[in-house]
Amino acid sequence: MLSSSHAVLVLVLWALVHAGPQTNFHPDMTDQELFWGADQYDFAVVLRAEGMECFWHFAHHGETFYLNFMVQWVTGVGHGRHLSVTVNAPSGLLMSTIDDAKGQISFEAAETGFYQMCFNNFHNRFGSLQVFLSFGVYYDGLQDPAKRKEEDKKKKEEISRDLNNTLGVIEHASHKVENYVFHMFRYYNFGRMKRSADHFLLLSNSQYVTWWSTALSLLIVTSGYLQLLFLKRLFVTKTSGEEQKPRC
């Protein structure tokens, strides 16, 4: 049997062993809702009527966080294409909010952690909508200002000492071109989302016109038939004599 002092010591040691830093920021979230790393993600999600979906993406301090979204198609009665989008910092601070069918959000991460993106479909109460998302982080000058100035000074000294050294110039140009290509891909992706949304809108309008044309054609044929039937009933035919003509 353990004495009371030994039992207290065991409980203290057990608490010290199991008490540690919280590494899982969102234990109730799945890996599909938490996005780690610095890559970009492009996918579509369907929001039900008055539904809301939230995603989290990890970003370090100093990185640039961006989010592009666009509503592709809408179902239901109201056909409300507006979408309420909010982005919150790991501390809960509201970084940006947009209430529109499409939008772009970009800012420099002020703290390290998971940034929350919530998409709310409260405008459309009777139908769902599909949203195309493109978000991620990219690195654009992550060094401290003092360190950056020191490196720039060293580069200038190296260039002044050796004008024939073109390796640094080629490396700088390649990084610059890579950055331009990355931003070009972002704009291309947003244009692709816009084209897909226009395609779905065109299909929806085509179906709308087809159904209404069919309904109006049936209405015209039915009205003509009813008018003919009504006019026919106005004439009364007597069968008593063959010489008598129908009269109104």
Automatic annotation (TrEMBL):
Transmembrane segments: 209-231
Leader sequence residues: 1-19
Topology in the lipid bilayer: Single-pass type I membrane protein
Entry keyword Membrane: yes
A GO-annotated cellular component: endoplasmic reticulum membrane
Coiled-coil boundaries: none
InterPro entries reported in the protein's UniProt record: Emp24-like (IPR015720), GOLD_dom (IPR009038), GOLD_dom_sf (IPR036598)
Compartment(s) where it occurs, according to its Swiss-Prot or TrEMBL record: Endoplasmic reticulum membrane; Endoplasmic reticulum-Golgi intermediate compartment membrane; Golgi apparatus, cis-Golgi network membrane; Membrane
Ranges for domain GOLD: 52-137
Main location group: endoplasmic reticulum
Keyword terms of this UniProt record: Endoplasmic reticulum, Membrane, Signal, Transmembrane, Transmembrane helix
Sequence similarity: Belongs to the EMP24/GP25L family.
Protein known as: GOLD domain-containing protein
